[in-house]
Design goal:
The protein is mostly helical and about 130 residues long. It has one domain. The chain has helices at about 5-20, 35-40, 50-55, 60-65, 70-90, 105-115.
C-alpha cells in the first residue's frame, strides 16, 4: 500500500477517535461553519461534525437529520477501496468510476442541488436543513 493511504487511515482514525469521544453538539470549542455563522445560509457540509459523531455511534436516523449528503461519503469510500483492493490483489482490473471524467461534474451537480434545496424555507425542503 502507498504511504498516502497509511497517512489517510491514520488521520481518519484520529478524527474518528476524537468524534467518537466528543459530541460536537455538547462542546463549544470545535469549529463552526463560517458560512452559516456569517450569513445564516447552510452549506453542503453543515451538520457534518454531528453526523460523523452519530455515524460512529451507528445512529443513522440522526446522521440523516444532521446531513443527508454525509451518508453517501462512506459508501463512496467503500466503493473506492473495494475496487482498489480487487485491482491490487487480483488479476482482474476493474475500472473505478470515480476516475471517470464526468464524475466530478455529476458530484458537483448533486452537491449544488443539495446546497440550494436545504436552504429553501418550505416543507419538505426544511427536512434537509440540519437540526440541532
Amino acid at each position: 500500500m502507498k504511504l498516502k493511504y497509511y497517512i489517510m487511515l491514520l488521520l481518519l482514525g484520529v478524527a474518528a477517535f476524537i468524534y467518537f469521544t466528543i459530541n460536537p453538539s455538547e462542546v463549544g470549542f470545535l469549529p463552526r461553519c463560517p458560512l452559516y455563522s456569517t450569513t445564516g445560509v447552510y452549506c453542503p457540509g453543515c451538520g457534518s461534525q454531528r453526523a460523523f459523531h452519530d455515524l460512529l455511534h451507528l445512529n443513522i436516523k440522526e446522521v440523516i437529520g444532521h446531513n443527508l449528503l454525509f451518508l453517501f461519503g462512506p459508501f463512496i469510500m467503500i466503493y473506492h477501496f473495494t475496487i482498489e483492493g480487487i485491482n491490487l490483489f487480483s488479476k482482474i482490473k476493474i475500472k473505478n468510476l470515480l476516475y471517470h471524467p464526468r464524475t466530478p461534474i455529476f458530484l458537483l451537480i448533486i452537491i449544488m442541488t443539495f446546497w440550494i434545496l436545504r436552504n429553501v424555507p418550505y416543507y419538505p425542503f426544511t427536512l434537509l436543513a440540519p437540526h440541532n
